Amino acid sequence: MKSTTDLNVKIFADGADKAGMLEMAAKPYIKGLTTNPTLMRKAGITDYKAFALDVLQDISDKSISFEVFSDDFEVMARQAIQIAGWADNVYVKIPVTNTKREPAYELVQRLSRQGIKLNVTAIMTLDQIQNIAANLDPAVPSYISVFAGRIADTGRDPVPIMEEAIRVLDEMPHAELIWASPRELLNIFQADAIGCHIITVTNAILKKLDLISKDLDEYSLDTVKMFYNDAKSAGYVI
Predict the structure, then answer these.
(1) Residues 193-208: pLDDT tens digits?
(2) Does residue 69 fall inside a structural domain?
(3) Residue 80: phi, psi to the nearest 5?
(4) 131-153 pLDDT, tens per residue?
(5) Is position 222 within any domain?
(6) Which residue of 35, 135, 214, 234 sits 20 to 30 Å from the alpha carbon of 82, by its own alpha carbon?
(7) Residue 30 belongs to a domain with what CATH number?
(8) Cβ contacts of residue 62 below 8 Å, gap of 6+?
(9) Which residue segment(s) compose the domain that 81 sits in?
(10) How many structural domains is the chain composed of?
(11) Based on the number of CB atoms within 10 Å of its own CB, is 146 exposed (0-12), middle (13-18) or buried (19 or more)?
């Protein structure tokens, strides 16, 4: 099994806790960072712009994706232009549709043609992938975030969709495919095996990296010890 240094897929840390983001950004195997309004709300962030600018003061050498949060495309466009101006390493996350099911393809085209680096997010179908790719400026760096983990949550295998997405992007050297919302450490190796460019990983999954290639007999024993010690600590009797 490969180690993190042998992987071709780039690992991006996904989170909204500044201390955690700085910790991950300092690791050489973390190549970029992403966040979103949901993660920021859970982290207790109340001032979106202040938080972003604070983080960007400390992280300037790796890409960071910040998301627009309007449901109106014109307002999204204004937010995107402002966010893109915060720092050169910023990618602007644009949802593939708004809440009314209206696709954001025209907005993606407009912003990409203005030279704004985009991270088009919440993608789950091949049709969405193809339409986004068709509207991105091929000369402008961009990310296409396919939520493979959420696809898997529906009982579907995301790998064929991700493989087809890679083929769609073959003629776009500046567009990179993101395996988003992974559910387990194995997903990193699945993404690497199919040639996916990037995978976003939460701190909870990143903490499992020391388990790579762990002896399974030892892991089995560790598990038995956990059950035994927890039962003992609880004082269970029969």
Answers:
(1) 999 999 999 888 988 9
(2) yes
(3) -60, -45
(4) 999 999 999 999 999 999 999 99
(5) no
(6) 135
(7) 3.20.20.70
(8) 25, 30, 31, 32, 33, 89
(9) 4-212
(10) 1
(11) buried
Whole-angstrom Cα distance, residue 114 to residue 110?
A: 7
Looking at 38-138, which runs of residues are DSSP E strands?
63-67, 90-95, 118-123
Strand partners of residue 32:
12, 63
Read out DSSP for 33-50? Answer: EE--HHHHHHTT---HHH
The answer to whether position 93 is within a domain reads yes
What's the confidence (pLDDT) of residue 181?
96
pLDDT at residue 218 greater than cutoff 90: yes
Is 226 inside any structural domain?
Answer: no
Q: Give the separation between CA 192 and CA 45, rounded to whole angstroms.
A: 33
Distance CA 2, CA 8 (A): 10
Buried b (16+ CB within 10 A) or exposed e, 116-133: bbbbbbbbbeeebbebbb
pLDDT recorded at residue 6: 85
Torsion of CA 43, 179, 97, 173, to 10 degrees: 120
CA-based nearest residue to 49, from 58, 39, 62, 37: 37
Q: Report the predicted TM-score, pTM, of the whole model to 2 decimal places.
A: 0.93
Task: Give the closest residue to 175 by CA, choosing from 136, 212, 149, 207.
Answer: 136
* Secondary structure (DSSP) of 176-236: EEEE-S--STHHHHHHHHTT-SEEEEEHHHHGGGGGTT--HHHHHHHHHHHHHHHHHHHT-
